[in-house]
Amino acid sequence: MVIVLVGVIAVLLAGVIYLLTAKKAVSPTEKENNQQVKNQDEAADWKTYENSNLNFEFQHPSDFMVEDDDYSKDYYKETGKYWYQISLKSQDMETVFAINNPGFGGPSLINKRDNKIVLDGITASYTVGDANPDMFGEDFKKRIVIVQFSQAGNGYYVQFNLPENSSDSMVKKILETFKFTN
């Protein structure tokens, strides 16, 4: 009788310990929702950059400095277009948005991965790689993300220079906020 009682108590105790220490299973949808809430919380203090000439906007962390270089006076006969450049800079990242710049062809990358990303309904090329030391020199150790797309006759080239071996998660968070305003 005592052995049965000790056995029942041991089973109950094991069950209580299991229930207290077991992790709750989270469905993929619940994980995505939790990540979206986390991303929204992170972006709550972000600033919005708006360009009324080219009708687009995006959000960026508030510690980024924005330089809006209006080259609208620079007209290229070859393309029949004016060009613009927007620079974003933080302690860890430098970004250039170049629109209709005939001189941008993109740097030579090594260890690159070509992908696609959708920006406000437009499919863009999304390439991640490391700066080629033969082109940039041994001291320029950066992870580079290049995004290219066209919209309303304008060619967009966006280059993010990140610290070496870093994740491109911040790049994706910024690009998730990109939208055309007209």
Précis, in short:
With 182 residues, the protein is α+β, with helices and mostly antiparallel strands. The chain has helices at 2-21, 28-42, 133-136, 169-176, and strands at 47-51, 56-60, 65-69, 75-76, 81-82, 84-89, 94-99, 109-119, 122-131, 142-151, 154-163, 179-180. The mean pLDDT is 78.
Question: What are the key terms here?
Answer:
4 helices; 3-stranded antiparallel β-sheet; single chain; alpha+beta; 12 strands; 7-stranded antiparallel β-sheet; 182 residues; 41% strand
Terminal-residue CA separation: 81 Å
N-to-C series of helices and strands: HHEEEEEEEEEHEEHE
Beta-strand fraction estimate = 35-45%
Alpha carbon gyration radius = 25 Å
Write the layout of secondary structure elements.
Elements: H1 2-21, H2 28-42, E1 47-51, E2 56-60, E3 65-69, E4 75-76, E5 81-82, E6 84-89, E7 94-99, E8 109-119, E9 122-131, H3 133-136, E10 142-151, E11 154-163, H4 169-176, E12 179-180
Antiparallel strand pairs: 1-2, 2-12, 3-6, 4-5, 6-7, 7-11, 8-9, 9-10, 10-11
Give structural notes.
The protein has helices at residues 2-21, 28-42, 133-136, 169-176; strands spanning 47-51, 56-60, 65-69, 75-76, 81-82, 84-89, 94-99, 109-119, 122-131, 142-151, 154-163, 179-180. By secondary structure, the chain is of the alpha+beta class. The strands form three sheets. It has a seven-stranded antiparallel sheet with strand order 3-6-7-11-10-9-8. The chain is extended and about 100 Å long.
